[in-house]
Structure to design on (254 residues):
C-alpha cells in the first residue's frame, strides 16, 4: 500500500468513527428530549421547531448536524455502498443506548440482529473504499 | 400502524435524499483542505449544487418524521426499522450510481439487512 492510499484509509477511518459516534449519541439525546412531546406533534412545523429548542433535542440535533456534515464529506470520496453499511454500526450503538440508558426491553432476537449487523459491517469494511466508475 | 406509516415516510425520503447527495458530492470531490479558507471554499462549492439543496429538503422531511416517531416509539425500534433504507439504497447505488458492488460487499450488506430485519421484529 503506498503513502496516499494509507492516508486515504486513515482519513476514512477517522471520519467513519465520527459518523458512528455522533449518530448514536445524537439519536439518544433526541429520544430523551422527544418523549416530552408524545401526542403533541401534528403536521404543523411549529411544534417541531419548539421541540428543537429544548435542551435534550437541541443537543441531539447538534450531534446529528455533525453526523450529517462528516457523512457528506465521507461520501465525497467513498462509495455510498461502503458508507451505508459501515454507518450501520451507529444503529447498533443506538440499540445499546436504548437498552442501558432508556430502559428499553430488547429481546434475544433483537440482540441476534445486532450481532449480524456488526458482522456484516466488518465484512464490508474489508472491501475497497473506492470502486472505478 | 401509525409507526409504520412514519417509517415508510422516513425510508422513502432518506433513499431519495441519499442518492441525490452521493451523486452531487462526487461532483464536489474529496475534502482535502482543513484550514478555514479551504473549508469555506468547500462549503461554497456545496451551496452551488442544486440537487444537493433538494437532497437536504428530503432529509428534513425524513428528520421531522423521525422526531415524531421517537416521541412515542422506542429508540431500539425506530432506528433499526428505518435502517430498512439500507438495502434499497445499496441496490440503487449499483443501478443508478453505477457503483461496483462486489460479492463480499453484497454478503456484508445481506448480513446487515438480515440483522436489521431481526432487530425490527
Amino acid at each position: 500500500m503506498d503513502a496516499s492510499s494509507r492516508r486515504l484509509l486513515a482519513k476514512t477511518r477517522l471520519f467513519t468513527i465520527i459518523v458512528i459516534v455522533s449518530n448514536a449519541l445524537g439519536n439518544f439525546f433526541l429520544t430523551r428530549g422527544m418523549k416530552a412531546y408524545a401526542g403533541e406533534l401534528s403536521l404543523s412545523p411549529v411544534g417541531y421547531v419548539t421541540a428543537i429548542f429544548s435542551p435534550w433535542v437541541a443537543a441531539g440535533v447538534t450531534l446529528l448536524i455533525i453526523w450529517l456534515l462528516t457523512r457528506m464529506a465521507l461520501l465525497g470520496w467513498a462509495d455510498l455502498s461502503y458508507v451505508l453499511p459501515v454507518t450501520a454500526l451507529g444503529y447498533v450503538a443506538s440499540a445499546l443506548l436504548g437498552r442501558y440508558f432508556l430502559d428499553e426491553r430488547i429481546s434475544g432476537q433483537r440482540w441476534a440482529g445486532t450481532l449480524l449487523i456488526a458482522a456484516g459491517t466488518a465484512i464490508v469494511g474489508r472491501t475497497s473504499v473506492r470502486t472505478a466508475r | 400502524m401509525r409507526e409504520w406509516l412514519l417509517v415508510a415516510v422516513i425510508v422513502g425520503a432518506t433513499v431519495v435524499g441519499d442518492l441525490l447527495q452521493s451523486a452531487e458530492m462526487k461532483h464536489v470531490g474529496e475534502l482535502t483542505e482543513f484550514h478555514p479558507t479551504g473549508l469555506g471554499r468547500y462549503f461554497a462549492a456545496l451551496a452551488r449544487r442544486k440537487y444537493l439543496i433538494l437532497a437536504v429538503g428530503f432529509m428534513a422531511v425524513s428528520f421531522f418524521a423521525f422526531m415524531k416517531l421517537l416521541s412515542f416509539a422506542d429508540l431500539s425500534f425506530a432506528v433499526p426499522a428505518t435502517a430498512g433504507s439500507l438495502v434499497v439504497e445499496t441496490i440503487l447505488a449499483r443501478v443508478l450510481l453505477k457503483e461496483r458492488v462486489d460479492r463480499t460487499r453484497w454478503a456484508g450488506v445481506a448480513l446487515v439487512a438480515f440483522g436489521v430485519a431481526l432487530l425490527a421484529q
Notes: The two ends of chain A are 21 Å apart (CA to CA). Chain A touches chain B through 61 residues (CB under 8 Å). The first helix of chain A runs from residue 3 to 34. The CA atoms of residues 23 and 77 of chain A lie 20 Å apart.
